[in-house]
Structure formats: C-alpha cells, structure tokens
Design goal:
- The chain is of the alpha+beta class and about 950 residues long.
- It is about 30% helix and about 20% strand.
- The chain contains 28 helices and 35 strands.
- A hairpin with a 5-residue loop joins β24 (about 580-590) and β25.
- The longest helix has 21 residues, at about 485-505.
- The termini are far apart.
- The relative contact order is 0.07.
Length: about 950
C-alpha cells in the first residue's frame, strides 16, 4: 500500500524499444506493413447466423533483408509493429539488455557520430543540424566552417542520447553536453579542429569547392533582408519584457544575428535551450555562455566548476525552459527542421510570449483552448461531453505534464465494491455500456457488474516524474456510470488542485499535503517539491477573470454597480442552472471617457453551461439576469498588464493605453440562445403544466390546508418556489431560503426583491409576506434561526447529493430544524423510461455509449442517484419512525394506481408532538439578503 511517505517507483522503461533496436541495426531497410484483421464475435443468440463485426485488430509484417516475421493481432497498430520487431530480435538472437552501451562504448559511438556529422555525406541531408553546417560554410573570415558547439549539442538527438549514456545528469545541463562533445572530438584530432575561443568545431580538411558551389546553387532565394520579431526576457525582474527585431541578411547565419542582439561577438558564445511549448515548435531561448566557464574540461572537473558558477539567474527564462539560464535571453521561433533545407522562421510577439506562460497553468490551458482568456474559466465540475467546451480535463492534464516535463499521467478505472444498500432495494446508481477493456493512453478499465448490465466506474490518476518517481496520486471516492466521466472528473480534481498550488507555490510541505487531501489527492512531498521547484519563478499573474467593480449583493438588492441592463425584455426564456446558453460578447480596453477604445477579446457565438463555473463569475451573473435577445453593458476591474497583453493583438497600442493610467475594461454581451436542461425538456414534452409548476401547486395546497405562517425552502436555488408562492394568496408571513450557491442566491434575491417591492406598492397586495431572508449554507448543517418553521420544503434537491448525505439531511431536518410539516420530492427512477421515450435523442447522449442493453439514464447529469418507489418509501418510512413523524406518500405527473406511478414522488412528514424538542446548535449560515415590509413600506 502506498503511504505517501516515500517515493514509489513507476514502471521502468527499457533504454530502447524493439523498433529502435531494429532501426539501429537495419535503418531504412526494415519495412513494416500493417494490415487490418477482421474479427467475428459471437452474437450470443443461438441459431442466428448473421456474423457481427468486432473491434478492429491489426497485424504487422516486418520485412528485413534476410527474412520476414509476422506479429500477433493487437488493437493498436503501434503494438503490432513493436510485436513484429520483438519477434525479429528473438530470431536474430539479439538480447536487448546486452545492447545497453557501456560508458566506453558510448564514447566510441559519440566520436563516430561526430565523424559522420562532419562528413560530406551528411552535408546535403535534411536534418535540423545539417542547415547549421551549410550556414557555417558561408560564414565570413575566421568563422568560416566553424559550427558552434551549442548547435551540435542541441539539434542532434543521437548526440544527446549518447551523452546521457555517459553522464545521466546532462539532461538538465547543456554546458556539460558541450564538454562531452569536446572530449569526444579529441579522439578525432586528425580530422576535427576545436577552437576554445570560438567554442566551435571545424573540419581540418575543407569540403571540396564543387560540393560548396552545388550547395550554394541549391540555396532558396531568400529576400535580401529578413526581419523576425522576437522577445527579449531580461534577467533583472525590474526590467520589462519587450519585443525586438532580428534583422538578418541573405547568406547570414541566423545564430550570428541573435548573438549580435545579445551583445556578443558571434554564435559561438550563444547557448540554446530545448524547445518551448510544443515539441514540434522551433521556439527556443537563446542566451550567452558564461565567460568564466572553460569548455573542454574533464566531466568531473567541469561539473565542479559549473556548480560553483554564480551568475544572474534569469528566473522567467529558467522557468520556461526547465534549464538554468543566466543573463538576458532572446525568445525566438527560428531554425532548421527535418522537413526542409530552408530556414524556418516566424514572428513571436509579446502576445505569444504571455500565452506561452498561460499554457503552463491548467486554467490557462483551458482558456487558450477556448480562445477566451477573459471570459472562460476552468469549470468546477465535469458535466456532459456535449456541454463541456474547450479541451477535456484528461487532455489538459496530459498537456500540463508535458509542459512541466513529467511522464504522461496514468489513468485507471478499477472495479469497486457496491456501496451498502438499504434492505431489499435494488442498486440503480450507475450504468455504463462497457466491460473490461484497455484504451489508448494507458487507461485500464475494469467495471463491476451489478444487476446484470449495471456497471460502476471509479478512476485513479498517477503522475510520475521523468525518473519514474511517483509524485501525485488522486483516488476520488465518487463513482460514475460512464468510464469517460470517471476519467475526466478525476483529471479535473487534479487540475483544480494544481491551479491552487501554482497560485501559492511557496507552500510548506505540510500545507501542500493538507490542501491536497481536500481533493482526494495524495502528495509525495519530497519528489513533488523537487519537480516543481522552478514554479517559484512563475510570474504572479492572476490568469483568473477580473471581477466586477463593486459588489452585486447587499442587504437590499440592487443591480450591478456601474452597470446597465436594458429595460426592454423579450418574451424569451431566461437561463437557469444547468441551461446551455449562447452569447455574443466583446471586451474592450478603454479610457474612462471612452475617447479611445481597443477590442481585446470577443466571440460571435460563445457557449457555456450555467452553474458549472465555466465562465467568469461576472459574465455569468449578468447573463443570468437577461432574457433572449437582451443586451447588457458593464465594466470590470482592470486585470494585470500581463493578462491584457496575452490577449492583445496590437501590443503597442495597448501598452500606450495602459501607460495613460485611466483605463477600464468594458464588456458588451447579448444573449442569443438558451437550451434548457435535458430534465426540463423531457418534462415539458410530456406534462402540461410542467412538473415544476405541479410541485409548486402541491406545496401550495398543503400551505393553505395547514394555515402555515412560515416556510423555509431547503436548496432554494434561484428561488423558483419562493417566487411562485408570491403569486398566490396564502397565510404565509415569513419565508426563507437556504442554498450553497451564491450565484443562485443572487438571482433569487433580485427576483424576490422586485416582486415584494411591487407587492407593497400595489393597492391590494396578493400575499401577506412581512419578511423574507436568504441564507448561504449547507442544508446538512444546523442553524438555530430556522428552527420550528411551520412548513419546510425540499423539492428535487436530495438527488443532487450522495445517498448517505440524503439520509443525513432527513435526520438533521426532522431532529434539529423540527418543522411541523416537511415536504420532500425526488424523481421516480421507474418513470424515466416514459420520459426518455417521449423525447428524441438529444446532444447530451454520449456517442461512446451505444449498448442496447443499457438501463435508463438519470434525468440530470448532476444527479448522484434516483430512487424507485420502493426505495423512496423505505427511506421515508424508516426516517419518520426514527424521528416521531407520520409520513404519507403522493406525487405529481402520472397516476398513483398505474405503472410506473408518479413522475415526481413526494413524501409529506407531519410532526406528532406539538412542540419541538430542545436542541443545542448555533448559527452557521450567512445572511445573503433580507427584506422586511416595515423597512420597505411607502411613507
């Protein structure tokens, strides 16, 4: 069992794969041919002779000069290729372990590789390093023919691999690679010339003139001058990152141009980082070699001297590259590639630089995938695949690991034991369509069968360092009916915690461990801190969205400060939690008087799901107050300069505006479409009036019969029940609502305030409400201010909790809050088959789930369970018996004596004794909004 107290090693990789060994031995002479193999599977129906096609399988044949082999069948092409290569190795009698190079063999190989690189055969090759050799031949004067050591060390993978065999620590030390190359070059003293002053190598025997002339004739016709935009990152934090132009001329060596910009003589003094961002990118950091380091020392002496060197560490550049960089650095996208002999180059702006920084943070990766740095947020929960916008959590986590040079995360969905069930009830919690399977990307899935085809998935994520030390393990307790949901939800937990950590990287090991526990994450502190040491250099930019200038909640609800919402409302619907909305928006940077205005970001069609935390809280707050075709304009607090520049296409104009000191952010948004949640669409398609209205009418009937004066709605959300009750004449004088969503409470406050104020101004008020109050708090926690209300309601709420929490809620309400009457409604799972047959397949249906034997889905993706009538009856009956209440059962939608019963099943609990028992508990809720008729009556 892993305890988190020490390192846990992951799977150790062989130095070379079978294909790599075959390539070393045969090169292009090894020919792989992969073919698809049809597989016929049993259909499970005796007498049915129609064959059914199974999953695609692949077989690979490998043709070598002397013989050929054929692999077994596999689900993935690359597995079939590796299998064929492995069979060939066995036939050749090669022992992979014996192919590991000794240090002396690596030295010989390194010298041989250098000899080949400086040969005439390599010069015309299409290789990232061959371009540097060709450019060296046209360098002027004493530099002619000299190839910088830094280029050889960086652009040849074989050199790096051999140096790693000699000295494993070279991976994080570019200067050590150069030192090893020099030691290998000394073995070729009769053919290579090393210049310590130039930090370069050159052939002793010049290339034949005809070879050089031939290469010059084949050079591409570049313009006389080339201007490439790059970014200078100063070593001093007090200096500003700025754009620079690299001006190259036809025939110039681009590294010499960068050297001039850095203030050194030539390319020999320029060091080059690994790629920044995508591995296929040519974006790299260029910086000066320390003058106090002497290249060419023995490895041990060099390492000792290098470790004692103290320079001006460029913290930002070091963070970006994962290598220690001293002094100023140039970030540029230029170089030779494997695709062409031409020089590749493209401009790299300040915007690109700040977006590279954003792409190192989980929320930044998500924002960039949506092209909405200001509008989007990394969602707080994974809902449905169709409602999620932007990169999926698993993909974001994989990208994050690559950006921070960690191993690919390992996802595993394992079999679990069913949770304890109530006596005599069936388990209907989660369903999925698969069995045991292994997916691409290291996902091993095992599901546990319950009741035949019901399956439950739980996912675990492990993250290892490049050295295969386990640094993070996430094992959530939640289970899911779909394998993808389990994977993405677990990945999102890890991403959410990583975001929190990167916002405060100076946590102690104890703080790191305790904060991770809240996300079901186990941290191995020593290894984790080691891998993320460089994150302390991360700029303290707040990539989260800006907030409104001022609060939108106050004791007496008012509209958003400094914002206007047009009065003319359309007859269209307004968004509610779970709705999928589409807006068009534009965000501007403007001076206070709006004399100058620059658009930063915008979208003609931007979709997000209300309540999932997928957008800026500011934007969602405004949108939830709008109707279709309505527009709004509001101001936002100005974020940091770095965030603005990550969005701005014209950095010069933006910098000019920011320097004025009178800027603000302005957003214009129009609500285009609202797609109500699937649950509401199903109910609307079958019931008139909708089930939600029928539930309100049911509660209203009991209020009138009981002559209740006070009502509390547990899980009130946006206040739909409380708002509906205001339209009827009842005996209620005091109403209260409790919820954990401040956004939903904000909407409820606005609606209730406008309705209650309108009621006071009316000549003949409809209702007798004297006070109303909204609390922010969990309904699983007691608060003495809500004790002893006449009626308590909890309509369609408990199914959003875990089942054990629903049971806890029932005990808390009846034993501590002690209402005279409690009305609880929840979906009847048995009715889902009728609801889903009444509606077509909606986009929420997961295309990966195609099993015809699959049970009915839950009505809402956020439902943690849905009970049958028997399960609901047993829960309510046992609860009433424990807490001295009577209970009666009813429902709305459907008929009680006709299968499958009511669509929404309802239990009404009535207290047997006349007064509640004493209970010792305090006030835990926060008052979000309060209204009193005495304070709002007309004078």
């Amino acid at each position: 069992m892993e305890t988190g107290k020490g390192p846990a090693s992951g799977p150790k990789k062989l130095p070379f794969t079978p294909k790599a060994i075959i390539h070393q031995r045969f090169g292009p002479k090894a020919c792989y041919k992969v073919e698809e193999v049809p597989e016929v599977v049993q259909n499970g129906c005796p007498g049915l002779v129609i064959p059914q096609k199974g999953p695609c399988l692949y077989r690979c044949s490998l043709q070598l000069p002397e013989f050929s082999v054929v692999s077994d069948t596999f689900r993935r092409k690359k597995d079939a290729e590796q299998s064929a290569a492995e069979k060939a190795i066995q036939k050749l009698g090669i022992q992979p372990k014996e192919d590991n190079l000794t240090v002396e063999e690596a030295w010989d190989e390194l010298a041989g590789r250098l000899s080949y690189l400086f040969s005439i055969e390599f010069l015309p090759a299409i290789h990232p390093l061959s371009g540097h050799f060709r450019a060296a031949l046209v360098r002027e004067g004493h530099l002619n023919g000299f190839v910088p050591l830094a280029a050889i060390a960086v652009f040849d993978a074989k050199i790096n691999s051999l140096c790693k065999s000699i000295s494993p620590e070279m991976e994080s030390n570019h200067l050590l690679v150069m030192s090893l190359i020099i030691e290998a070059a000394k073995r070729l003293a009769d053919s290579l010339l090393f210049s310590e002053e130039k930090l370069s190598l050159k052939r002793l025997t010049p290339h034949p003139p005809d070879i050089i002339q031939s290469l010059l004739k084949n050079q591409p016709n570049f313009p006389e001058s080339i201007s490439i935009e790059a970014v200078r990152i100063p070593s001093s934090a007090e200096k500003t990152v700025e754009s620079v132009m690299l001006n190259a001329f036809s025939g110039n060596y681009y590294l010499d141009v960068i050297a001039k910009e850095l203030g050194v003589k030539d390319a020999s003094k320029v060091l080059i980082s690994r790629t920044i961002g995508k591995a296929s990118s040519e974006t790299r950091l260029y910086f000066c070699a320390p003058e106090s380091i002497t290249i060419g020392l023995s490895s041990e002496l060099y390492t000792k001297q290098a470790s004692s060197f103290k320079g001006y560490v460029n913290t930002i550049a070091t963070y970006l590259s994962g290598q220690e960089i001293c002094g100023d650095a140039i970030l540029a996208s230029v170089g030779y590639t494997r695709k062409s002999t031409d020089l590749f180059y493209e401009d790299l702006s300040l915007r690109a630089y700040y977006r590279i920084l954003a792409n190192k943070i989980p929320s930044g990766i998500y924002k960039l995938s949506r092209e909405a740095i200001f509008a989007a947020e990394l969602p707080t929960a994974f809902t449905t695949r169709s409602n999620w916008r932007g990169s999926f959590p698993r993909d974001i986590l994989c990208t994050f690991c690559r950006q921070h040079r960690l191993s690919e995360p390992i996802f595993s969905s394992d079999s679990i034991e069913p949770l304890p069930d109530l006596p005599g009830r069936k388990r209907l919690r989660d369903t999925a369509s698969g069995g045991n399977e292994t997916n691409e990307g290291g996902i091993t899935a095992t599901a546990v069968a319950q009741e035949g085809c019901n399956l439950v998935y739980r996912c675990t994520v492990k993250i290892y360092s490049k050295c295969q030390d386990l640094i993070l393990l996430c094992s959530p307790k939640e289970s899911y009916k779909k394998q993808n949901d389990a994977i993405h939800s677990t990945a999102l937990k890890v991403l959410s915690w990583l975001d929190r950590f990167l916002d405060k990287v100076d946590m102690s090991e104890e703080e790191i461990t305790s904060s991770a526990k809240g996300f079901d994450i186990l941290i191995y502190p020593e290894q984790f801190v080691k891998e993320f040491t460089l994150c302390q250099f991360l700029p303290k930019y707040r990539w989260g969205s800006a907030t409104l200038a001022g609060s939108f909640l106050c004791p007496s609800y008012s509209n958003v400060q400094n914002n206007t919402l047009e009065d003319e409302l359309s007859s269209g619907m307004t968004p509610s939690s779970g709705s999928l909305v589409c807006v068009t928006y534009k965000i501007y940077l403007a001076t206070e008087r709006e004399c100058i205005k620059e658009q930063l970001e915008g979208s003609e069609e931007f979709e997000f799901e209300i309540g999932s935390g997928a957008v800026s809280p500011v934007l969602e707050t405004v949108v939830t107050q709008m109707s279709i075709d309505q527009s709004a304009c509001f101001t936002m607090e100005l974020p940091s300069k770095e965030i603005v520049l990550a969005v701005a296409h014209d950095s010069a104009n933006i910098l000019s505006l920011l320097s004025s000191g009178t800027c603000l952010m302005k957003c214009e948004v129009t609500l285009l479409r609202v797609t109500v949640p699937l649950e509401d669409r199903m109910e609307q398609a079958l019931f008139s009036p909708p089930l939600s209205k029928q539930r309100v009418e049911y509660a209203l009937q009991h209020i009138r019969e009981s002559c209740a004066a006070s009502l509390v709605d547990f899980g009130c959300g946006s206040g739909s029940l409380l708002e509906s009750l205001l339209a009827y004449q009842t005996s209620l004088e005091k109403i209260a609502g409790v919820d954990i969503s401040q956004r939903a409470l904000a909407r409820a406050a606005k609606i209730l305030h406008s309705k209650l104020d309108g009621n006071i101004e009316a000549e003949q008020p409809i209702n007798r409400i004297k006070s109303a109050i909204l609390y922010d708090g969990s309904i699983l926690t007691c608060d003495s201010r809500l004790r002893g209300y006449d009626i308590a309601t909890c309509l369609e709420v408990i199914e959003h909790m875990e089942e054990h929490e629903a049971c806890l809620f029932g005990d808390i309400v009846l034993s501590s809050f002690c209402p005279q009457i409690l009305i609880v409604s929840t979906p009847n799972y048995e009715y889902n088959v009728i609801l889903q047959k009444s509606t077509p397949q909606y986009q929420e249906d997961d295309p990966d789930e195609k099993s015809q034997q699959q049970s009915c889905k839950f009505r809402n993706h956020d439902h943690k369970f849905e009970w049958t009538r028997q399960q609901f009856c047993q829960w309510a009956s046992e609860l009433a018996l424990r807490r001295n209440y009577d209970v009666e059962f009813s429902g709305v939608g459907g008929e009680p004596n006709k299968e499958p019963g009511f669509a929404s099943q309802i239990a009404v609990f009535r207290r047997k004794d006349s007064s509640p028992t004493n209970a010792d508990f305090t006030e835990h809720y926060d008052v979000i909004w309060e209204w009193s008729s005495s304070n709002n009556s007309r004078s």
